Amino acid sequence: MTTARPALDPELRELLADMPLMSQLTPEVLAQLRQVPSPPVESLLAPRRAERRDITVAAKDGAQIGLSVLSPAQTDRTTPAPCIYWIHGGGMVMGDRFSQVDIPLEWLDQFGAVVVTVDHRLAPEATGTTLVDDCYEGLLWVAEHAAELGIDAARIVVAGISAGGGLAAGVTLMARDLGTPAIAAQVLICPMLDHRNATTSSRQFTGVPSPWSGEMNAFGWRAVLGDLTDAEVSPYISPALAKDLSGLPTTYIDAGSAEVFRDEDADYATGIWAAGGQADLHVWAGGFHGFDALFPQAQISATARRTRTDWLARLLSLPGKSGAVG
Questions:
Q1: Residue 55 phi, psi (nearest 5)
Q2: For the ranges 83-97, 281-295, 311-325, which has the lowest average pLDDT?
Q3: What is the CATH number of the domain that holds 132?
Q4: Which of 4, 114, 241, 276 could be a cystine partner for 235, CB 3.0 to 4.6 Å?
C-alpha cells in the first residue's frame, strides 16, 4: 500500500529530476560520498574580500577540533559584529566545516557578521555526545575570544542545517544547562532532532528515493548512537527527547512539507511554545529536505532564505536590505 505524501513544489520537482537519488545509505556508499569535496571556499570568499583564519581548539578528550573564522574585509567598523556559529549538515556521517557555508555567508554580506564554522568529528568513527561536545567546545572558544575576533558576545547566533541543525539544538540545550555561553538565538534549518525516526513524515518518506530518506536517517542515527540503548540516549544528541524546553533563546525553525524531518521539527517548535518560549516555525509547502541549500535559485528557495535573513535582521536590530552594516 502506497503511503500518501505531500507533492513536491513543481519547480523543485523539475530540478530534482536531474539529480541522482537513493533511499538507502550503506558503509560503502558513505565511503564514496566522503570522497566528494565541498566546493572550494575560496571561490565564495574572494568576491566578498572576506578574510579566513583557521584555528584548532582542544576537545574534552584532547582531540583537535578545527574552526574557521570568516570575517568581512577590514573596514572602519567601530562596533563589534554579530557572530554566526555555523554547524554543517551531512547526517552526522559526512560533510565538513565548509559544507553549505554559502548560507551563513549571506549573513556576512547582509550584516557584516563574523561566521565561525566548526569541523566536528563524524560518526561512526565518533559516537554518543562526541559530536555535540566538539561543537560546544568550539562555541566556548568563540565566546571566550569574542573581543579578539571583533564579535559582540551578546549577539552570537548558533545555526545549522540538517544534522548541523540537530547539533545546534543540542549545543543550545547544553549551553542553557551549563550556564554558558550566552546565545542570542538559534537557527535550525530542517534540523535532525529525533533518533526514534517514528513520525508520520518519517514514514511517508521511507522507501522513497530522496535527498534524505527514512532509511538514510536510520543509518545516520545508528552510526552516531553506536552501542547506546534508547534509555542511554542524551537529549544533547537527540534534542526531541528534552523534557524541558524552557529558557532557550529565540528560535527559528524551518523545514519542507515533503521531508522526513517535517513533524519532529514542528513538534520541537510546539515544545518551545509550550514552555513559554519564542519560536518562528516555517514549513514550506512542497519543499524536500535541504531544498534551499541544493537549489537556491528556485523561487521557493529564494523566499525561504530571504525569510530567514529578514528574521535575523529583526533579531539583530539591523536593516536587512542594505549591505554589510553593524
A1: -140, 170
A2: 311-325
A3: 3.40.50.1820
A4: 241
Read off the pLDDT band of 79 (50, 70, 90): confident
Q: Tell me, yes or no, whether 295 lies in a domain.
A: yes
What band does 75 get if pLDDT is binned at 50, 70 and 90? Answer: low
Torsion 227-229-232-235 (CA) sign: positive
The answer to the question of residue 325 being in a domain is no
pTM of the model: 0.95
- Report d(CA 164, CA 174) in Å as an integer: 15
Q: Which residues contact 193 (CB under 8 A, 6 or more apart)?
A: 165, 166, 169, 238, 239, 240, 261, 264, 265, 268
Cβ-contact 206, 178 below 8 angstroms: no
The answer to whether residue 300 sits within a structural domain is yes
Quickly tell me which residue has 520537482 as its cell: 13
Ordered strands of the 51-58 beta sheet: 51-58, 64-71, 114-119, 81-87, 151-161, 185-189, 250-256, 279-284
* Number of domains the chain contains: 1
Strands (E), the chain: 51-58, 64-71, 81-87, 114-119, 151-161, 185-189, 250-256, 279-284
Average pLDDT, stretch 281-304?
Answer: 97
Task: Give me the domain span that covers residue 136.
Answer: 10-315
Whether 248 shows a pLDDT value over 70: the answer reads: yes
Rounded CA separation 199/270 (Å): 15
Which pLDDT score is estimated for 2? 53
Is 324 contained in some domain?
A: no
Residue 61 DSSP class: T
